[in-house]
Amino acid sequence: MKLKIYLLNLFLAILLCTNAYTQNVINYTTSSLNTGNSCNVFNVSPPVSVSGFVHYPVSGGAIFGTYGGSAKYLQLNASYNSSPSSNLGTAYAISYPFTTGFTYTTKVNAAFGGGNGATYPTIQFGILQSLPNPNYTNATACGDVNENYWDDIGGIPFGPYITVSQSGNYTYTAQSFVAPSGYNFLYVLINSFGTPNIPVVALLNSITITKTANLPLTPATLPIQCGNTTAQTFTVSNPYSIPGIQSYTWNLGASNGWLYNGSAAPATITTTTNTITLTPVCGGTQKSITASATISGTSYPANNPATVTITPATPTMSGSGLLCSGSSTYSVTGLPCNATVAWSVSPSGLVSLTPNGSSATITQLGDGNITLTATITSSCSVSPLSKGIIIGQAPPVNIYGSQEPCIGNTNPWSLSAEPSGYGSNWYWYVSFLGTNASIYFSSTDNPNTICSVIGGGIVSLNYTDLCGVARTTTITVYSQCGPGQDGVIAAPNPTTGSLTVSTTTSPQAKSEATTSGGQRMIYQIKIVSQSGAVLKQFEYPSGIITTTLDISSLPNGIYTMQVYDNVKWSSQQIDILK
Questions:
Q1: Nearest to 473 by CA among 520, 419, 428
Q2: What is the average pLDDT score of the chain?
Q3: Which of the chain's ends, N or C, has fewer CB atoms near its CB within 10 Å?
Q4: What structural domains and CATH numbers belong to the chain?
Q5: Prior bond to 419 cis, omega within 30?
Q6: pTM of the model
């Protein structure tokens, strides 16, 4: 079939859930159609009326009478073939007063006859502005006619074909559509599919046409916080421009918790506009709302209610979490109606507190941390609000470092200033460099950097804190890469007092010293001053391959660490910097 469907998407609409409808049933079974005109029951003058609606032949002829029993049906024949000249079907039209903008749903109660178990009749519904020329569509023929006649009857089909697949009476529903302007006829076209050249017949009992108004009410859901008295506007929309709307009725119910024009809202309000503005009563419980529109004297409810839910009040406290100096004001917003706020601060002595209703001002008296609390009293259940505030000095930035895999003798470190939001104006630099050491930065002016370390040293970071004060923080970095000195590694170097000493697997060391699993062993360690005095001595009779020394009691300075492997002594310089 080649029906013109290019306008289909403009007018099809899925029927929205609604109780607003009028309904007409065209009942063929109980009609007084003339059974004598056996081959084209609608080809009569004047046109025949069924259930008050005038019918016209379009292509071929419908038959009225019994089929396989005593029950009477409107019978329409069809036979499928891929060739238009042999593809047979039947069509007729019903004069129907479609109203612009309304949504229509068509149902048909039907059964099928004939066929071979794999071939069924199909029904296509559509709308017409006017009847097609009967000379072109073969409206006076008996029985079914070929596709060349009903292929171009015009109009707009709605939805896909309905397959009449039940041999018993069954109700089928066509896709709903919104009526455009100027369409006054419903057409019914019977075709078939399946095995070619198998005659089938659609047996129609009745057609039901339901008219509904698509009137969505917005908002469909409305959460209202307890104690919120903000005015709310409700709207009944008319998306398909239904004409003739005379008034709107808003159903609020008794004791509804709403104000209308400043007074308690009645249970029902009628307006000539499609909107209404209501204000929640302070301390009241607002009810949900339904609405309807009177259209040409008939009341059509809106598609949906405006469902109102009362949610807990959620006030919030605004204000900075840092008071460097002077005064700062804090406020509670989103308070329920008629709420009062009591302010308090703990501990006392660090700030003075000046309450002012829903706001309060604190003034610095000292340095430290406080908690500012707003206790709210209202008809709604609201928990106290608390805010931690740092007074006097901004929170510090700390350096976090992690060693990355070795690149030769170089040990990369990933350094980050955290939290980075606590500072600005970053500057990384080396504040102490160990003997024969080197430290290089990938970047010096970002909160994150990579430094490449040989030996060891101290990295410092200058920054400006949240109070605008210039501050410095440091970290000790050292390399654990390379062979060490005489097969011994001491880290961190420089150290603040804890020094880890371990041996390597140097081939020369293994050949000259006592080993464990191929690794050089340590039996004695001495820490010697620059004058040669032994300040610390550690002995390991059974030998070890790693140990951590506590030399925190020694003052800052340069020292010599001597390590004995049971064969010979080796030395390297150690820097203590606290």
A1: 428
A2: 90
A3: C
A4: 8-212 (2.60.120.260), 217-311 (2.60.40.10), 316-391 (2.60.40.1080), 398-478 (2.60.40), 488-576 (2.60.40.10)
A5: yes
A6: 0.66
